[in-house]
Amino acid sequence: xxxxxxALIRTVVPAFVxxxxxxxxxxxxxxxxxTQGVLILALVAFFTGLYYATVTWLxxxxxxxxxxxxxxxxxxxxxxxxxxxxxxxxTTDRTPEEIAQIASASLARHFx
Length: 112
Description:
The protein has a domain at about 5-70. Helix content is about 60%, strand content about 0%. It contains three helices and no strands.
């Protein structure tokens, strides 16, 4: 499965579960609409984080719990510039400004 799709599913499922739990926790509260809206927002954030943290922890011990995030597989990310950058600059008889200018020019060439 595409890594983007895996990441998307593993983001949406906890958000949906958090929204459901947040809404359920606020049902029946006799408070004004504005306060209820803020409370639901806070509860959704809380339950989303709690659900994700709990399921991630459980999945680190028992792999099948990963399915509670929608997909058991974790996405893998490879950076665009995964090779890293090494710049060798002779600092003998150079001012800090010259060194910074050389390093900046080298990085600009590398990341074009």
